Amino acid sequence: MPSGPASMLVEDGQPLAARMRPRTLQEFTGQDHIVGPGRLLRRAIEADQLSSLIFYGPPGTGKTTLAMVIANTTRSHFLTINAVLAGVADIRSAITEARRRADGLRQRTILFVDEVHRFNKAQQDALLPHVENGTIILIGATTENPYFAVNRALTSRSRIFQLRSLDDADLHAIAGQALRDPERGYGGRCIDVQAAAMAHLVRVANGDARGVLNALELAVETTPPQSDGRVVIDVQVAEESIQQRAVLYDKEGDYHYDTISAFIKSLRGSDPDAAMYWLAKMVYAGEDPRFLFRRMLIFASEDVGLADPHAVTVTLSCATAFDRVGLPEGRFPLAQAALYLATAPKSNSIFAFFDALGVIENEREGDVPNHLKDASRDAKQFGHGEGYLYPHAYRDHWVAQQYLPTHMQGKVFYEPGALGYEQGIRRQVVGHREAQLEAMLDVDDGAAGEVFTYSNGGGAHDHWLQRTVSRVGQHLGVLRDRVLDAAALQRHSLVLDAHANTGLLTWEALRRAPEGGVWSLTHDARSAEAVRQQAARLPELQRPRLLVGGVRELPALLKACGDEAVRFDAVVGRNVLSGHPDKAGVCAVLHACLRDTGRLSLAEVVPRRAQRLSALVGPATLGEALAARLQAVEDAIYQADDDPLVNWDALDLEATLRGAGFELWMPLSVEIQDEERRITEDALARWFDARAANRRPSYAQHLLKCLTADEVARVEACYRQQLRDQIVPWRTSWVYVSATPVPLTLT
User: Which pTM does this prediction carry?
Assistant: First the structure.
């Protein structure tokens, strides 16, 4: 029931901790961060200008004591109730008295609710309107986090002060005050507490003022005086008075959640020492080991995952072992599981599932792609399953086909980690994605050595098939490593990818120069968008600087983004020079943007040595005369002196580089790449498109310069008969350039 301040005053016969409870701020020890000189709460108490308050902190830190100090200081009427014992009727009684005093005596009422978190929602709601209209000033005390244990409406109308565990100096001061006080403590008796004994009492009390006073009282009251009347408290007596350290831990409260949170965060942070500390604290306090194993099993998938797939197995085995042996020996497998998880490589890539779940929750219902539908029931009627490519029928039991719905194509959910077992998965998955994008555009752009340009590109299905057969991704991976190895990148290098249309070199350069920077030059908006989408998966500071334009525009592009002063440690690229009509001008620009000690590393396809289509068919079908003329026409295509795509070879490129001020780091290397290609219907249609209006003529348009329309039709029929849907050998020539700039001298 509500009571006045007098009921809160201590009486003789009460425990020492109750008798020594401070009555004024001058007697209060500790919590200087909230009641020290000049602090807001101290000023409010001294000025009797309090608003609603909630005191939150561990037991024995002074929450109730501060309320009593306020009761002894304020001119307001002070009521107190305990939330464990009080109900709604008690609240109503307190509110009625508060109204009576406000109306009749013009006196405010402060209502102190001890353990306010014990009030249920209905009881807290009963307080809310009266706190809001000023009928009462609420002071609540709680050991639970008020942001979780108290209604949000109450916390929003109250100022919350967090009290901390008292330090050793505070506890020494509190115990010393009890020994000196002749009225409420032991100042009238001859008590001799040895320093080591006091240190033990303070240490084991663990920041709890009530705990140290209770232990001191037990030691004094149970120790008989010596012949001279002195009561001597030595270490042995102190140890008997407080035998076990009080650990702040409530299995159902805030400290339970805070401690398990600290444990899990220590595991996540790969700190085995901290993990052992928090685990020991929970075990010491009596936490259920099965709860700990449950949390560690979740952690093994959530935070370790594929970085160490054995983490789940080890944790589960340790849990099974614990069930077999029980306590106390079961603490061995408990600690083993924690140490394994703390020292395991970490990955949270399993959240890919929850990313996908979030997409599912927000997207419109989409249909399953037809080729992925079940063909066992209605393949004939509806064509379900048509077009599905059976992976086991292909090389390496893999075929590149689309498994996502059409509207989700290109969406990335799984981001492999870079540690442990998942490191290998990362190399495979990330490299595969990059090579797939590169290969698709590589086929689109005809960059494998064909000197004629396709018309409107064919379907993506043919491109997937082409990549599957030709292993373009594998070849590109070798090319990428060859170019970047020659660039001799360091972790702090500044790198320019001078033809980053698909990002093949860009992504690996970012990995090799994490403390440097990468600039990616793409030649059109389409390619820039492809790179931009890939880069969006990286943190902003780790993304490449994206430039859109030709190499000749590079100085202006750098100036536009504020990087005109940048000089690169390396310029890398694939097919930077091959089709450019002004190779000397491009080389001069690259020379100007390199440091004197920089490296130029390029891989250039040599179209002059490209695969001849006429070599893929037997001459018998065409007849010897037409076959010979076809071969001569093809040779002329690749030897045209006025075509900058084909009018050069490796020696010409070397002369161009030297003329632009470069010195070869190593001799130019021309290498043959042999692969296999599937000749698709789409490819044949593009080759023989006589109406192509692209920048470069199609194969048929080249042939029509020297052959009649009937002869070209015979060539097309021959190719279709012998090459359509066939896998053929395909040869491409590459020249690798590795050079350094020679400083230019003025004459």
Answer: 0.45
